[in-house]
Amino acid sequence: MPNEPKQKVHQGQFVRAVSRQGATLRLTIDGEMVEAVEGDSLLAVLLLNGRAVRHLEFGGAPRAGFCLMGACQDCWIALGDGERVRACTTPAAHGMVIWTDLQKAQAHA
Ligand code: FES
Asked: Tell me, what's the pLDDT at 89?
């Protein structure tokens, strides 16, 4: 299923245990505007918005990263300029464009 469009997993996949104080950021994930709080990682933004980093090649199960600390390479996503970054160690910024589908990222870069 690697060429099928990624879909939102479902709402409530990830919830904040503690509220975060900070500026509200607006960024785009796969063409959809979402909000985040200053200090969130891109992985947190993805999961808080019911998305996955990718889907498994076998069975299509959603992946949400593995180590969450920049070591496993399981959370690569692309920015609007095509740069690939780890979602778990990249802080969200206002105006960011994020693609979980690397083919779409290349098409829009
Ligand atoms: S989840 Fe392991 S590198 Fe990001």
From this structure: 97
